[in-house]
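Re: [help] complex structure
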Amino acid sequence: MKIYKKLLLLFVSMLIISNLYASGVNEDESDEGSRPKLKVFLLSEDSNRLTLHQDYYAPQVAEQFPGFDVEFELPGNAYVQKLKIYNAGGDLPDVFWGMDFVVESGNALELTDYIMNDGFYNKFKNKNGLIEYKNNYYSISPGQDAYFTSVLWYRKSILKDNDIPVPTSFEELLEVSDKLNELGIIPISNQSWPLTHFMYQDLIAYEDPEFMRDLLSGNAKFTDGPGLEAAKKLQELVQRNTFSRDVAVIDHQSHVDLFTSGKAAMLYHPLWIQAAIAEVSDDVGFIDLASMSQDSDILTGWGSPFNGFMISKNSKYKDEAIQLAEWMVSQDADYWTKEQNMPVSYDNGVAIEGMSEATESYSKLFENSSVMTLPNMTQVLFNEAVRAMNEINISKLITGQISADEYVEELQKSIEENS
Amino acid sequence: MDHHTRSKISIMIFTLPAILLFSVFIIYPLLPTLFYSFFDYNGSIAKGFVGIENYLETLQDPVFWNSLSNVWRLMLAQYFLGGPLALLLALILSYNSSKLNMAFKTIAFLPSILSVTVICLLWSMIYRADQGLLDRLLMLVGKEDWIKTWLVDLSTVNWSIAAVIIWQYIGFNLILFYAGIKSIPHTFYEAAKVEGASFLQVSTKITIPLIQEIIRFVLILITAGTMGTFAHIQVLTNGGPGDVSRSVVFHLYFKAFQLFDFGGANSITVIFAIQGFIIFALISRFIARERIEYT
Amino acid sequence: MIWIVLTSFKNASEVYSSPFGLPQQWSFSNYIDSVKILGLTRYIINSFTYTVGTVILSIGTGSLFAYAAARMNWKRGTWGIQFFQTGLVIPVYTIIISLYILLRDSGLKNTFPGLIFVYSASALPITIMIFYGFFRSLPFELEESAFIDGANIFQAFLRIILPVSIPAIITTSIVVFMNYSWNEFPIAFITIDDQYMRSLPIAMTYFTTLRGTEWGLLGATMVISSLPPIILYLFASEKIENALTTASVLK
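Output below.
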């Protein structure tokens, strides 16, 4: 009896106390609630995004937008999941990093008129930084993505010390891989993300750049010659142990560490990885997989019409939300140009100093109109469902569960079913 | 006689709150699920009535059956490894009471209260290639040839996951068994002690039969808990490599939130619920039979 | 097992070179930081409120229902039990969107009652099953003695049955507390947008966005968030044992 009463008392008092505290805190908030609220939902998985929020947005937003209470939400790797729920429920945050399904369900605001009228559009020196979808702009970003391309980085010292020449063709790459394996060094540190989004495309472009163009415009199939060949090449790389044995599950940090610690001789990852491998930057050279044996260069860019800040169609403060987004774009531009020494399509008047050799050489290529620039097929050709299935199938391909033939068949089928 | 035991009003008062709560927050949201399982539904727009097509597709989908067998594997692992191990430990602990008991129980119990994400992140570090604890241990004792890529190799991936789940909940089951064993009055043991019975004899002939209620209860808890496995899969392997290590709930989630095939996902829900129903019915019957034997 | 415990303590120290070595410096700065910088107090209180509310509501309604099914002359008793058994097999993702819309439209989103109702509803099946089994094993004399004294069913329930059911109450509390509330993730993640209303597990996810380099803070948070369950368990396990022994003596 006594124990029972004590327990009950304990529970009830905890409940009362916590409720009191809770309602007390709530009251504090409602005093401040006289200012309208703007909700911003941000990507927050990598250090770039986190720094942007911590050092750029958060400290200055109150100054820049004094009439509003701006709230940032950073959900980490659960971003897409949460966004889907917001989208399904129809109450998206005012500003958020966009995705295709939001536009497809009609919840994204068309920004074309706004950015044309307030001069934002004219601030872009590289128009590839703003990508249209069905003749409308839905997202804005500084367009640094337009310069991101995939790179095969290598440790100069490892190759030199072992008399291994830098490969200039796929066959040479395989030979180099074999030699490195004999020496107990992992040839290429790779990870599922760059593998899925860049490598297959690079190999197709390596086979036949025009074919890749046709694929993107829907005039070719993955099951045709070069598409199948590229898949076979990918499979070959796996079978020759070019990647680490846990490539299907390796986490980002380990993937980078393998390269910086010298356990792997090469690293396959887009341009933005430079900050993470800075400690060995003196020893790093780079190869472009797609143009390895071509006479001219082929670039696979990144960027989609949806990757940027989007505004919710139901936002109560559309104009202010757009201004906020535009301001955030300018902050992003500052970050990339000043801190990361990387070019952006948005003109913030900053001349980039100290660009790395890689960044510089690629920037020149991007701004050279005679160079073939291919958009990233996973962003432009695939929709969400196709991407999800593709991730599964790439994983199956690199773990030997399916053959190259089956992979391209599945991919082609998936694209046809979902368009 | 009439102390309200038969009064309909009293019965209503007792039962209504629970029924209301459950119906509003569980049954009511389920209705769209059932409804849309007969449609081609992408989460916001119903594209057309398709009858039982979703169901047929699910039943013919090898990935579905693989996911289901993964779940069954997990349940069997708990039934025949996790549960018995916990029971054995509880028997040992209660047989030899010592001061270490408390410490041991607490340490064993810890994993079950930590969040699944944390546990799985820790285990993915253990399973990590070359750097992980498991690989390092094997290298230390010279058994390098036993090393596999635990979360990638098709032969090890599902058991690696099972190991994590068993490990996490063994303490919890242990506590429950222990409490049950401790509640047996000593009178039952006295006769055995006089005759000098061994640990094995005491356990099997006296203890186990007397804690049937607890065993039954733990069995139900394990079943319910394991069927809903999702977070473990998501954090450890994300269903991979490919879709090899998916659980049914994961497969459902994938269909709904990645492929936007809510119709299909809903059909999986219904089929899975029916399966669950059958399993629970089987278990109840299995346990009921045992009880009859002992009364 | 023991290693895991050590690791979680180690995670709370300032800097460590390898994940598997011993801490170089024990420091409480992480604990203090996580409370201050990350506003842990708020989240702890939130989680507490959700959990305590859930435990009370689910046991309150569940035990009543189970009693009716087990002991009162209710013809549909077994149907009732089976009705709730179905709840055991419903994965949360199947109802999550409808639930979100329901909570939003009823104004219960981001509120304490909202999440408490949902958690309690999901914990009802297991609660009812535990109590049902327990009640069925009680001897009839218990109520009869109360009736002889002239009590009605409600009084009998409150004064006699409940106190005897303490082991069941405690067991259920632990189960509900742990599996359906304190560490619960999917429902809380999806239905709570307001950052002040977040529960601990959700708050921790938002911390892990710091790429693993902030293991110190995370570790401290983990330890803090594990404390209440541990305390509850320590407090309760003794009670369960005592209560169970007394219960069997009563028989």
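The longest helix of chain C spans residues 215-250.
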